[in-house]
Amino acid sequence: MTSDLLAPLDLAFWNIESARHPMHLGALGVFSCHSPTAGAHAADLLAARAAAVPGLRMRIRDVWLPDVRLPRDLAAARLPLALGGATREPDPDFDPLRHVRLHAPTADFHAEAGRLMERALVRGRPPWEAHVLPGEDGTSFAVLFKFHHALADGLRALTLAAAVMDPMDMPEPRPRRPEPARGLLPDVRRLPGLLRGTLTDVGRALDIGASVALSTLGMRSSSALTSEPSGTRRTAGVAIDLDDVHRVRKSAGGTVNDVLIAVVAGALRRWLDERGDGSAGVEPRALIPVSKRRPRTAHPQGNRLSGYLIRLPVGDPDPLERLRTVRTAMDRNKDAGPNRGAGAVALLADHVPALGHRLGGPLVSQAARLWFDILVTSVPLPSLGLRLGGNPLAEVYPLAPLARGQSLAVAISTYRGRVHYGLVADGRAVPDLERLARAVPDEVETLLAACRI
């Protein structure tokens, strides 16, 4: 295993973290079992298998002058951009027993997951953890995986987690073509091309910055979904039938993702009205992440994200009109492309020197509430059934990081015919998160009724 420079967005996630705003994502998997000792056996398996997964042995180290091979798209002339950055490198003292923990039996997996999601990962070690939570009834156990966003985005975290599950028949990964080592000084024959590339990058950054600024003009944050950070976390989860989502889509139009986002808008409306805050006039800005990872591309590794920004029509009382509004907004974003609008702000990370990320991280973290009020993200999962120690994975709830100043993040995954909504909230600002979770299937029923299905 060799060292790699952190990609710019990974470096941004690494530097905006604080004690009250850890930047790890998670997944709570619930397994069916027939033995009260199945959880302990699962913990032993996870620790034994983690030692054989190279990606789980990687730590992140802050460095001033990276001593690594430069990838093709980080030309030697751009080396100053890496000064003050960080590398992903093997941990010589890696001990899987530090990362896999067996807890006491519990009757509430989500309550335990919320408490564990509060805790930041240890930065001196590979930034991931697996917490095994046996169920009190002896018929199930849960595993909470935590991965720092700088180590893995949703897709990469899925790959790492799947590597410690029971073996499956999966296609062999495409081998990476070795990259030649480069010197610290550029080849003078390449300077004209490198200069043109740098100027192009600057122009692209200015264009993105302008579109971000214009798209946020006149926007006000929704006080219902923003709060002063308390550092506490609550999680909740709920599953709905994918067939119901398809029925709504076929009747009302749009995509599956449009329907899933509209369900979030309707659930928020119910929740706000039930808790007495009122939904009238509420249109929170939702950031919908969009992956820009290029297939079959080894470099750059790490997160490659942009995003779409839409107004959730929470205040609209008509469920089908809410869906039409979401569909129209998403279509408009797709037509404009992921390089436009406030959601494209993540792309600016590619144009900021590493030292700028290190020094400006705390300031950037405080600006999240200026761009969006709530994160609504989809995390892909394989359609094949996963197992751990022979025990089938029955439910899986993705859990997204919570940005500074925001009270709620929603992550969505589809697994074996069910759509799982994973909710993460500031525990003090949203003590009734379970009420919001219960509103999700109610909103699906409302859409089905409106479609007369």
TrEMBL record:
InterPro entries recorded for this chain? Acyl_transf_WS/DGAT, O-acyltransferase_WSD1-like, O-acyltransferase_WSD1_C, O-acyltransferase_WSD1_N
Q: Which spans of this chain does the record mark as coiled coil? A: none
User: O-acyltransferase WSD1 C-terminal domain spans which residues?
Assistant: 302-445
The reaction(s) annotated as catalysed by this protein in its Swiss-Prot or TrEMBL entry are: an acyl-CoA + a 1,2-diacyl-sn-glycerol = a triacyl-sn-glycerol + CoA
Q: Which Pfam families match?
A: WS_DGAT_C, WS_DGAT_cat
- Enzyme category, top tier: transferase
Ordered alphabetically, the record's keywords are: Acyltransferase, Glycerol metabolism, Lipid biosynthesis, Lipid metabolism, Transferase
Q: In which pathway does it act?
A: Glycerolipid metabolism; triacylglycerol biosynthesis; Lipid metabolism
EC number(s) from the headed UniProt entry: 2.3.1.20
Q: Where is the O-acyltransferase WSD1-like N-terminal domain positioned along the sequence?
A: 6-259
Report the sequence similarity comment from the record: Belongs to the long-chain O-acyltransferase family.
- Under which name does UniProt file this protein? Diacylglycerol O-acyltransferase
Query: What is the organism field in this record?
Result: Streptomyces cynarae
